[in-house]
């Protein structure tokens, strides 16, 4: 039996890697992938607590998180295509139309 | 060491190493391949937690659906120019330090509080009817409204993605 806090450590580490990816990368597609890493870290925590409490609710919430990830990926990638068509770039720091 | 421990540590190592590979590769296609490895091993972590249905959802939806979407977009978007440019932005040192501080805080909090998780280490007693039946019953009895809202959310996202990726809106 693996203690629950091992899973929490794993989730925290994966979350941090995702945060580093979001904050440091310029390629907007890799930023979206880092967000997927963060959502997976959340899922690990949810399922670990679902196991800990012997209740299935955590897994149901993990399914909702996966649904959100699918919706977010679809809209985000649509945005990237529209953006690339207009600006010819995928670098997040070159997209500064709203900056004053 | 018992077999579950070996499986857990192996899967954790694969998850973390491939996640680091995702955010450090220059080529976006390589990042996607590494992300698929990460998602598979997170699915394995779900298996060690006896969440078999979620493992199936992870493989079918994430690896089969979302990753194909990413690959298609990488093929649609011309990345040859971005490949030769700098991959990290100017504030990456500050960002790395901040994230490591966050990691230290989370780790310290979990380490200090982990005694609270040792009260009820219940032995493996699978729910009657198996994990899939339990999740299905919870989804369609307790979380009925949430499932409907999630389906509407998916519809909205689908319509929004189609409209945004369209060439011209009449």
SSE layout and pairings?
The complex is a heterodimer of chains A (100) and B (170).
Chain A: H1 4-24, H2 28-52, H3 57-87
Helix pairs in contact in A: 1-2, 2-3
Chain B: H1 3-24, H2 28-48, H3 52-76, H4 80-84, H5 92-113, H6 130-142, H7 144-165
Helix pairs in contact in B: 1-2, 2-3, 6-7
Fold and architecture overview:
The complex is a heterodimer of chains A (100) and B (170). With 100 residues, chain A is an all-alpha fold. Chain A has a domain of 64 residues: Orthogonal Bundle (Helix Hairpins), CATH 1.10.287. Helices cover 77% and strands 0% of the residues of chain A. Chain A is built from 3 helices and no strands. In chain A, helix 1 packs antiparallel against helix 2 and helix 2 runs antiparallel to helix 3. Chain A is elongated. Chain B is mainly alpha-helical and 170 residues long. Chain B has 2 domains: 103 residues, NADH-ubiquinone/plastoquinone oxidoreductase chain 6, subunit NuoJ (Four Helix Bundle (Hemerythrin (Met), subunit A), Up-down Bundle); 42 residues. Chain B contains 7 helices and no strands. Classes of the chains: A mainly alpha (100), B mainly alpha (170). Chains A and B meet through helix 1, helix 2 and helix 3 of A and helix 1, helix 2, helix 3, helix 5 and helix 6 of B.
């Amino acid at each position: 039996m693996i203690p629950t806090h091992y899973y929490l450590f794993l989730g925290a580490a994966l979350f941090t890697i995702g945060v580093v990816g979001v904050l440091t990368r310029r390629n907007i597609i890799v930023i979206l992938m880092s967000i997927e890493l963060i959502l997976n870290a959340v899922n690990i925590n949810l399922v670990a607590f679902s196991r800990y409490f012997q209740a299935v609710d955590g897994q149901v919430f993990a399914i909702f998180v996966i649904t959100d990830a699918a919706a977010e990926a679809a809209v985000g990638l649509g945005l990237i295509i529209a953006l690339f068509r207009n600006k010819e770039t995928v670098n997040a720091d070159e997209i500064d139309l709203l900056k004053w | 060491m018992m077999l579950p421990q070996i499986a857990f540590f192996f899967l954790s190592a694969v998850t973390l190493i491939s996640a680091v590979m995702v955010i450090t590769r220059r080529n976006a296609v390589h990042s996607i391949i590494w992300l698929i490895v990460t998602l598979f091993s997170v699915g394995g972590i779900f298996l060690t937690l006896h969440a078999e249905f979620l493992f199936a959802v992870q493989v079918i939806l994430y690896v089969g659906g979302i990753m194909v979407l990413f690959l298609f977009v990488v093929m649609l978007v011309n990345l040859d120019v971005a490949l030769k440019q700098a991959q990290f932005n100017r504030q990456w040192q500050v960002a790395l330090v901040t994230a490591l501080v966050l990691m230290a805080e989370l780790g310290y909090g979990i380490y200090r509080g982990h005694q609270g998780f040792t009260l009820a280490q219940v032995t493996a007693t699978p729910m009657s009817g198996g994990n899939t039946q339990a999740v299905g019953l919870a989804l369609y009895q307790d979380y009925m409204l949430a499932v409907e809202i999630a389906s509407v959310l998916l519809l909205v996202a689908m319509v929004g993605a189609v409209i945004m990726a369209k060439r011209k809106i009449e």
